[in-house]
Amino acid sequence: MPVYCITGTNRGIGLEFVRQLAQSAEKYTILALTRSLSSDLGELKAAASTTTHILECDTSNLQSIHTFTKGATKILGNQKIDFLLNSAAVNAASWQNSLTLGPDDLIDQIKTNVLGPAKMVEFLLGTDLLSPNVRILNMTSGLASLQISSGMSPRKSTGYSISKAALNMLSVHQADDLKGKLPGCVVIVMDPGWVKTRMGGSGATVEPHETVKSMLGILLKLKEDDNGSFFHYTGEKIPW
Ligand SMILES: NC(=O)c1ccc[n+]([C@@H]2O[C@H](COP(=O)([O-])OP(=O)(O)OC[C@H]3O[C@@H](n4cnc5c(N)ncnc54)[C@H](OP(=O)(O)O)[C@@H]3O)[C@@H](O)[C@H]2O)c1
């Protein structure tokens, strides 16, 4: 049974990934990660299948990621993770621009949006939990594209955009660095579009079910040549 591991699943796009995978005619083992088991997990529990494991993982906290990987080893036994979806992220202080960046806000975003996906991969690799053909999706944003951002007005979410541009660079490095260790792996970044979640807000144009359905389809069709690519959820490539 293929194994999906998804971060930030108590709401938003992460929750929708769990919902669609759990309802699929195919059976999957799903590691549904959430920042805290003490938060409201009603929607996640309702979406889960009998092969869904809800596990705590605060992706801004290295000890939490480490503890999760140790627990995952026990749950998975000989199974390996086939799909790692790093979806958890924060967009703190979206009103700040390049002239008003709050140091703590920027650091929080770097911790969750960049260091989190870096350490997820590092620790899962270190515990031998990644399949040799693993597909890793680091969820980015169109705001991470230097080319798109250079023509954007008005500007906002500067700290978030910086963190997602850094995530893009991390992903290009992961794509190369993992190749020597997991020969069939493919690492991509994906922009899910402007999605109706708490982060996207009610003015957003894309429904969570629409983007998640498309992204799951793209993941299944990835080829080794796609390693290190930047995709839009529609399947088009995005300029860096
Ligand atoms: N929505 C959009 O329009 C849009 C556009 C471009 C890119 N994206 C990207 O898509 C991904 C999902 O976004 P979304 O729209 O679903 O956002 P969302 O509705 O705000 O949900 C964010 C999820 O990430 C979790 N999270 C945040 N910090 C975490 C941490 N330290 N540890 C573990 N989980 C954490 C949240 O958990 P808590 O409930 O515990 O905070 C929540 O489950 C993100 O990477 C985002 O940057 C979204």
UniProtKB/TrEMBL annotation:
Q: Which InterPro entries match?
A: NAD(P)-bd_dom_sf, SDR_enzymes, SDR_fam
Q: Which Pfam families match?
A: adh_short (PF00106)
- An example Gene Ontology molecular-function term: oxidoreductase activity, acting on the CH-OH group of donors, NAD or NADP as acceptor
State the name under which the record lists this protein.
NAD(P)-binding protein
